[in-house]
Amino acid sequence: MSLIVDGTTGVTFNDSSLQGAAASPYVLKNRIINGDMRIDQRNNGASVANNISGIQYSLDRWLIYGTVASKFTVQQNAGSVTPPAGFTNYLGVTSSAATSVGAGDIYEFVQYIEGYNVADLGWGTANAKTITISFWVRSSLTGTFGGSLLNGSSNRSYVFSYTISSANTWEQKTITIPGDTTGTWLTNNDTGLRVFWSLGIGSTYSSTAGSWQAGGYYSPTGATSVVGTNGATFYITGVQLEIGTSATPFERRMYGQELINCQRYYYRFNPTSSSSNTLGSGFVQDSTNAQILHFFPVSMRTSPTALEQSGTAGNYAIRSTGGVTTCSAVPAIGDANTNTSQIQLTVASGLTGGQAILGRAVNTSAWLAWSAEL
Amino acid sequence: MIYKILTTNIDGQTIYARIDDDGLCRLTCTEDYPEFKAWIEAGNEPEPADE
Hints:
The complex is a heterodimer. Chain A is an all-beta fold. Chain A has one helix at 255-263, and strands at 3-6, 10-13, 18-19, 48-49, 56-57, 63-66, 72-76, 91-95, 106-114, 131-139, 143-150, 156-164, 171-177, 191-201, 206-207, 212-214, 219-220, 233-243, 266-269, 277-284, 289-295, 306-309, 316-320, 323-326, 329-336, 340-346, 356-361, 368-371. Chain A is built from 1 helix and 28 strands. Chain A has a 7-stranded antiparallel beta sheet, with no helix packed on it. In chain A, strands 24-23-27-20-21-26-25 form a 7-stranded antiparallel beta sheet, with no helix packed on it. Chain A starts with a strand and ends with a strand. Chain B is 16% helix and 35% strand. In chain B, strands 1-2-3 form a 3-stranded antiparallel beta sheet, with no helix packed on it. Strand 22 of chain A pairs antiparallel with strand 3 of chain B, so a sheet runs across the interface.
């Protein structure tokens, strides 16, 4: 193994990867969460079509957006091709139509990175650090593709481009981007940095690649439009964003660790029993209502303001000393903070105020979820 | 999709139910929920609670 130690550039390994900083680049170096596309709490491998709400998530941490609904689908391991060596999953985009992209249209997927996780980049200062993005990509189309980096206010952009040379073949791409020495880049629990991949961007939001500029741009001008071809595919995995001027091997994280990383932004409780899954303990408020408390597995980014559930009241029940009573209304959100959520359970009648109770999911169709996405 | 007032919770907070196009409620929220706020800012009003 060759190893070059240089006082100016750092340590270069025999695969040409460079360690440019004193801090180890091999532990917690990747600022992208779920870059290997393993976690899919919301859809569990099912396909979803883009809508136009602007805050639609597919695989964990990966937001999809399209100006017009139902122009593409996203699915974990869509098409069931063999992922690149060392990976088991990928995010698969499939175009649903031959869509003409208007000047103001946007079709893309993106990861929002929390400011805490990029604070050390020093962006917006004279000490802004260079980063390198690497990923594996495979498409039925060839040509020039692109994406961009943006700050949370969409007034600083760096458009990047890359080439896919062979159709239906995994290719690894590496893009090195100098740090932005100007602009506002948040370093708190709000949006610090956004990384976009273009699936079809209109001229209003396209620009020249390769330099920082004011404004919000998502794609290089003239890039290939995935949504422009019905049935076109675009698969991606192994996404890494790290400090330095070259890509190092993808950071492998334990499954549980990455799941926790995802659950800071979205947490879904999935029952495993077909009859009894305790959601939390609590007390009876009056003859029809009870309150239970559910603990999150990790502190969420912010206090959730909504509770998602299956939509069927009969999937939930209250266990008291009097027996099990099926709910007559779906669970409703109560007071929530970054660590716990109160949940209101409602039945038709028969509860005794002040009793201690357990809330239950009574089948595997029941679930609860909270979001604190950026 | 619409929002409807669901209840006032034990802490005095108004809780809203999102009613999807198929009539099911798959989400409840407070007035601080970003999608609800955007829906209100778009000129919509939540329906009153059931009697």
